[in-house]
# Entry
Amino acid sequence: MPFAGLILLAGCGGGTVANQAADTAKVKRDTLEIKVVETGALDAVKSVEVKSRVSGRLAKLLVDEGDTVKAGQLIAIIDPREIQLQVDQQAAQFRGAQSLVSRIGIEIEQRRITARESLRQAEARLAQVKSELGAQPTLTTSAIASAKASYNSAQEELQRLKTSGIPNERTADEAALSQAEVNYTNAQSEYQRQTNLLKEGFTAQKNVEDAQLNVQVMRSRLEQAKQNHDRIEKQIASELNRAEQDVLRTKSDYDRAVAMSYQDGSKRQDYLNAIAEVEKARVALKDVDAMAAGKAQNQATADQLSSALSDARRNLNETEIRAPIDGIVTKKEIQEGELVASLSGFNAGTPIVRIEDRRSLRVIPNINEIDTAKLAVGMAADISVEALPDRKFTGHVKKVAPAGNNVGASTGAPTGDSVVRYSVEIWLDQADPALRSGMTAKCTLNVLKKDNVLVLPVEYVGTDEKGSYVLVHQQPGKDKKKVPGVRTNVKIGAKSGAFVEIVSGVNEGVEVDKPEYTGPSRSGFMQAGGGD
# Structure
């Protein structure tokens, strides 16, 4: 039978101190005890409801109710195929973004080198033109000769490329490409031949596999040869274009040098043009810096994709549900094959299992405000469990709630219980395999215990405006009529619901009368008998 808000008042271990027939009691020396008794349900101090951070179908549930698990132990698996697809997609997008950043980086570096070289050449040209402008008569002849030599050299280089350099490179490249194509065709034929021989039982599987591997190798070499072919063609075109440009440039320089011998006035214009070329080269170099800013933006996109990929991989790892604590599986919330909603800021998530760490158990009874005021953290408690009547357990008060949980009493709203109650956590000092969550436990807290003190039943101590007092019993006279007791002031100490400690005023063994009851009239179901 549960105990609700019961105070055990063990006031007199030595027996009754009141003589009910005569309405008298003797002051006796005894033990005064106050105990608060309340019931509650056993619960684990640490229990978790395991949920998933990803949504999906529960592929496997590896534990059952009653199983003991360790922290980090794999207990369930969410079907990972959909999340794996997301990981693959994010990885592909990230690789593409990284490739774009790398390509832009290479292009920036190439353009920077070209722009710096153009600026260097333009500045050199400006210095040259400026010098020539100051010493034109002397430089004219020398400039013509130098320009002619450069022009001839450029023509010779262009002719060399056309007659020997480019044809040789193309011949070697085409030979390598042709040989790669032949090797690939031969490898395919050999693989087909080995396959046919295997079907007829004239060769070994190993030969077929070697032929197949050779096809793959030859295909790779053919692709590499094609790539080399494309690269060489581009390189040849670039070299040829550069040589032709050099011829045009040196021819222009030569023509200008010749013209300057007749038109010295044009040197001034060349000087102005050189200045413009320097400015143009500087602007081109700044354009490279603008490209670098664009690369930074592309790098930011790649970083975002990298973050998304990391999140997808984390979600993939989250498909393996692991126990967060050591404990016992007390409940399976869903079965294999059911859908699981993820835990997020907008969704409470689907519970999978509940795990309790039963190495630490507690009882949280709701105790009325009067009894709660007598409690303190660390106070010892005796605990008995209805399911285990022959076992005794001990505990201590771990926490007392700072606010009452009776909403009606605190707000004035209607409530069935007008007494404010407080949740009090009582932790068991030791665990026991026989204990289960939800078992009803009675907690007895030793609030007060005073040994060898003078005590009287509370109804024999009166109180008025002068303080506490007792009526010392007087023996009847010769006429046998009852003589009123003599009022004697006393100092009282600790109180329980049934007994009160007498600190001073009367001695042990003094017999006292019961004071007249001056409270409200007792009637109805609370009436214990006639009179007082």
